[in-house]
Amino acid sequence: MRRILVTGANKGIGLALTKAILSDHDDTFVYLGSRDRGRGEAARASLVSAEPTWAERVQCIELDVSSDASVQAAAANIADALDAPLYGVVNNAGIGDGSADLHDVLNVNTLGTARVCEAFLPLLEARGGRVVNVTSASGPNFVHDCSAAQQRFFVDDSHSWPQLKAFMDACLAYPDEAAFGAAGLGTGKAYGLSKACGNTYTLLLARLNPDLRINACTPGFIETDMTRPYAESTGRTPESMGMKPPAEGTRSAMFLLFDEPQGNGRFYGSDAQRSPLDRYRAPGSPPFTG
Question: For the whole prediction, is pTM greater than 0.90?
Fold first, then answer.
């Protein structure tokens, strides 16, 4: 049985991904990570109600990626129950610009991914274990608007975690948009910055763990609790803006979990094709080969 942890799995893309894993691969067991246990158990119940045979293949795990203690407790609980290494970890939990300030967005979207990886990598299969970091096309879009020097920073695979952490700490000290601009970081938009840092973290993590399969991906423009307010603010429906349902946001993550992506530490578009870290690549266009 291939055991997989999915964070932020009680709704949206995380729940859709959990459903896809259970539906498409009979030899899988999913730890459904949820910041709120009640919502996690409700999500599990909805899956089992739809397909009762999944009852023995999905378990709710209380896991708040913004909390060191919560992540460590979740890792300890799973470690106690494991009779074999984890097959994969999907870092899906995230928040958007409307949720909080830069500190909170980085704490969930980038530091949260790092917390989970630090706690759960020791539980992964030593050779071939999978890590999928769900980032966003907002990352490459953010990098594209940066200065040439900052663009080089984000695509450099030689960074250490202390270097990346120091960079984020410096960003937290900038007082306003003008300071971000002076530093070559465009407008300093919190969500894009956090996802660009998430992609850079994927690069360094893959370099440090060459025996694992570690990659990042964007789910695409998906209707979720994070994106729906954006549509509402424009007076349009999510569908009219081109947002797709959560089930259509699982393609890249499923590819990185179960297929054979070439290379490591790479970023994939919503069409499961390799994409650059410093500019947007539209789904259906030729894969990035740089």
Answer: yes
